Amino acid sequence: MKVVVIGLGSMGKRRIRLLQRYNQTMQIFGVDKSEERRKETNEVHGIETFNTLTDLLNENKINYAFVCTSPLSHHTIITDCLNQDIHVFTELNLVHDGYERNINLAKKKDLVLFISSTFLYREEIKKIKSLVQESNGLHNYTYHVGQYLPDWHPWEHYNDFFVGDKRTNGCREIFAIELPWLVDVFGDITNVEVVKGKNSSLTINYNDHFLAIVEHTSGHKGTLAVDVVSRKAVRNLEVFGEQLYLSWNGSPQGLKVYDYEKKVDVVIDLYKEIDQLENYSHFVVENAYYNEITAFFESVNNQKKPIYSFEKDREILKLIDMIEA
After folding, report:
1. d(CA 155, CA 200)
2. What mean pLDDT is predicted for residues 7-24?
3. What does DSSP say about strands 245-248 and 189-197: parallel, antiparallel, or unpaired?
4. Which terminal CB of the chain, N or C, has fewer other CB atoms within 10 Å?
5. What is d(CA 43, CA 310) in angstroms, rounded to the nearest whole number?
């Protein structure tokens, strides 16, 4: 098994670390135009790195690619990999550039085209879905996700990576992370009412907050607040109805269900072992990133259908386009 990780930033390094845990016999290569990143990756992870994908392919036959570059570059890299008969795992794309081309190319070549949607692999999300499905009646929810944009990558200015670009902005990334699982849990969204604007002094050319009221095909309704101005990193969910009240603060220990007979909140323990890195927020759990890597290889080796797809993502991106318009 020969794997290339393209893009050796924070996400690329995460994928390398988890790939080495997944299969210690796997031969992993890295590609990045930055000499500094290549050198650091070689020293920390002990893998061979290349300046370009072409340089790598001139010397090696690659089976799998993880595309971890900035989102606007994804579609051309994906095409290049598919044309070399390489199965592709890609991080969030945030734009649907090249979707039809790459979907059709993957089908033509019988290759797996796998897109990350990490929260669908979180144990808390799976539990929330089962609780909502098992309880009777309709539910409403309120959900606030926010973090001050300069805190996203403290080591660099926010205009120096993809969240500074209007097409791949910070609020858009939050929507792209959260909407897939909200749709999976509550159903397709049929109606959205949006209030948005810019309250901050951030040097960005896009809205820094959105307040959306959404209706799902199931009849469930929600209020979704997304922003890049909250000085505290927050992910606060409440789901409420006649038969269910649950809350979640985004952390692996933070899912609670209210026992309305005993009048107490009950913590739902879902993890035998929690893998978290010190330099990330408390609601960033490595377990889910590992789980979707496993799902990617199961899709390739066992023809197991992924729980998320480019086709589903295309619809989510259309919804985000409408919210941002």
Report:
1. 21
2. 95
3. unpaired
4. C
5. 35
- Are 74 and 168 a contacting pair, CB within 8 Å? no
Instruction: Specify the 3-state DSSP secondary structure of 258.
Output: strand
- Tens digit of pLDDT for each residue in 258-267? 999 999 999 9
Q: Are 233 and 281 in contact (CB under 8 A)?
A: yes
Nearest to 171 by CA among 110, 132, 227, 213: 227
The Cα–Cα gap between 3 and 20 comes to 11
User: Scanning the structure block, which residue is given the tokens 């200015």?
Assistant: 157
Share of the chain above pLDDT 90, in %: 93
151 HSE (CA, 13 A, CB side): 14
The predicted-structure confidence for 156-183, as pLDDT tens digits, reads as follows 999 999 999 999 999 999 999 999 999 9
Q: In what order do the strands lie in the sheet with 140-146?
A: 189-197, 209-216, 221-227, 140-146, 234-240, 245-248, 255-259, 264-267
What's the Cα-to-Cα distance from 240 to each of 137, 142, 254, 287, rounded to whole Å? 10, 9, 16, 28
Dihedrals φ, ψ of 224, to 5°? -120, 120
Least Cα distance to 117 among 272, 293, 305 occurs for 293
DSSP per residue over 162-176, as a string? GGGSGGG-HHHHHHH
121 CB-contact burial (10 Å; exposed 0-12 / middle 13-18 / buried 19+):
buried
Residue positions counted in the chain: 325
The bridge status of strand 189-197 relative to strand 140-146 is unpaired
Domains of the chain as residue ranges with CATH: 2-115 (3.40.50.720), 119-282+309-324 (3.30.360.10)
